[in-house]
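Q: What would this chain look like folded?
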Amino acid sequence: MLFQRRMTDKEWILQQLGSSQDVTLKNLNHADNNVDILYITSVTDGKILQDTVILPFYRTNESGYKTYLQSLPNQEQPKKREDLLSQVLQGYVAIFTGNQTFIIDVQKLLNTTSGNATVETVIQGPQKALSESIDTNHNMVRRRYPQASLRLIHMKVGSLSQTKVTMAYDENIANMDIVERVKDSLRTIEVDVVQAAGQLHRAINKKQRTLFPTMMITERPDRIAYNLAVGKVIILIDGTPFALIAPSVFYDFMASMEDVYHTYWTSKFIILLRYFGLAVSLLLPGLYVGLTAFNTEVVRFQLALSIAGSRIGVPYPAYLEVLAMLFMMEMLIEASVRLPKSIGQTATTVGGLILGQAAVEAGLVSNVMIIIVSAVAISNFVIPINAMAFSMRVAKYIILALTTFFGMVGLVIGSIGLIGYLTSLESFGHPYLKVFRETQSKG
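A: My prediction, written as structure tokens:
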């Protein structure tokens, strides 16, 4: 009869931690003393480890070293393997000497070095954002997602910049086909310098001229942990406080992390509100042109009279009126981004009010047009992810152009064409309009 040898604690922990490249096993050998130390570099402080564990080893013999370890106030001798693994994941170092195992607290706490989220803000929820240091981001991800199945794979991209990037995924949940696709994409990209997440996204994307993003850019560690838990792959980049999430589908770009923190019905209502805002931002300019210039019989008689009355004295067609005001709105939005934060919002708000009022009084645009442009601007800001908001800003001009030439038929054709285009998109093999679920992640 064959008996299977029982794994030691060290072998079992190494098996659980797998191929993650931030897991370190070192053998220390001095005179007759021999120990192994196991730790995770991203959550342990190298200086504390050196001063507390490594240097004392070379200054004492075997019995003296054990006595020293037992005297440390932050040492423990775990009774269960699971407890040992849990503490290693938190930043403890495991010391295997003879038939004894010690764990010493050498945690590296770096969360305070990062700033608050400025792009993906929430009212309720964590406020911290990623850092520009990839080592700090490793630490934040490990602390947000302390699972033994988390794998960190280090690479370098950019033939000149040699930028460090890290792939992070949960080996027990992620679809390995998607993991391999992302890994191959990183290995095969041809770019000289990588300095930002958006630049890497463009290099990875095989369809260079696609209108919609197929990877999400995020600054939030809680969003990273949430997406790791549903089987997605995270790409951390050195030198930027933003990470990439793959695959990302249309629904992901309409969701905010605050949806997870609200009650069920509140979050569902807010999500529906976003989709309504998306429809308003996308279709309202074209709808206005179609109803005023082509199909006035569709609206009620009183509303048609009201719109016609407001346009008395406007010297050009409805589509030029819409284009002029939309372009002015786009310039105000860009100005708010480029101006210093202390004056940006004030300048654009005052500028918008003065410009709109002056245009109406001069008879260049109608009152209804001002209402429509304001509604479009507000609705566009409801979309929580900037990449999708920018894409929809472009898409509304395509629908507006079709409506200008073909009326309401053009609006319908543009809407159907947009849905068809979204249907044709994929994100690393996953359909763009299909919700990514954990139950699907294992393939």
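DSSP finds 17 helices and twelve strands in the chain.
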